[in-house]
Amino acid sequence: MRITCSLTLIGLCCAAALLKAQYAETYVYTDSNGLYRLTQSGASYFARLSLNCTEKKQPHTLEHYNVKDKDPSHYWPSFYGCYDWHSAVHNHWALLKLYITHPNLPEADKIRQKLNTSFSEQAIAEETAFFERNEEGWFEFPYGQAWLLKIADELHRWNHPQGRVWLSRLNPLIQFIEAQHVKFWSAPDTLMWSGSHNSPALGMSFAWDYAVSFKNTELQQAIKNAAVKRYGSVKSLKIELEPDTIRYDFMSAGFLVADLMRKIKSPVEFQNWLQACEPELFNPEGTKKRLAIQYRNKHDGMEAHYDGYYLN
């Protein structure tokens, strides 16, 4: 049994909630495998959102910091927009993904210019210096840092001359974050269950993809050991308790764990593990029950996280 957890539009979930029903067929279509795909119009729509977001300095979480300088670009010259650092990184990944999958977008030149500016050697050097000076390198760990590894993974798999240039410029920050991940996932820790920014499963999952692409066996082993220790013996994915109404989860904590275990285990091992903790997913009625959408009338503020949860 194959279960996949599509994270393609996590950071764009709030925008997706605003799409009216009559626009659905314009922006999204279903391919021969039953998977949702963006049309050219849909890709263009999201490209415009991310281009606008990554340039927007205010509002920003920096407003809540006890600092005189409230301009986020003075701290993070690459990833200053989108309200906070991890959202800026995520939206850069979205721009990169759209640029790769839809090269003929009307916004392609603007995307290339934006990424070329954000991924400049000077800007990345300043971003890296911020990490080295603050929070002992744990700033935005694991969520934001994992999204940076996802950008590196995307560039590596693209295998394009422009991608190699950008990857080379990003390398100082990538290497710093890679070392932080090896250090953290190698250390003992307790089980944590989350469908929000602090999800260990998502952090490990993205770091695993990166480690596989770059053949980093040390990081792979650290993640595998950590995943088995934390989730290898769980009795349930607790999907029936989702979404968490305290944290305003925008992802399924249970399916994030399942997706991670799918990656680190063989197909047979994964099937046995999943059947032991979620047997209902192996019959149509049980799956329908677990994946049922709870429709909501409110889609603004933190409530929009639930739109992301069901989209994912």
Produce the secondary structure layout.
Elements: H1 13-17, H2 24-27, E1 28-30, E2 36-38, H3 40-55, H4 85-101, H5 108-118, H6 121-133, H7 143-158, H8 161-185, H9 200-213, H10 217-231, H11 253-264, H12 267-277, H13 284-290, H14 304-311
Antiparallel strand pairs: 1-2
Helix pairs in contact: 3-4, 4-5, 4-7, 6-8, 7-8, 7-9, 8-10, 9-10, 9-11, 10-11, 11-12
What does this structure look like?
The protein has 312 residues and is mainly α. It is built from 14 helices and 2 strands; from the N terminus they run H-H-E-E-H-H-H-H-H-H-H-H-H-H-H-H. It has helices spanning 13-17, 24-27, 40-55, 85-101, 108-118, 121-133, 143-158, 161-185, 200-213, 217-231, 253-264, 267-277, 284-290, 304-311; strands at 28-30, 36-38. Strands 1-2 form a two-stranded antiparallel sheet. Helix 6 packs parallel to helix 8 and helix 7 packs parallel to helix 9 (200-213). The longest helix has 25 residues, at 161-185. The radius of gyration is 19 Å and the shape is globular. Mean pLDDT is 88; it is low at 1-20.
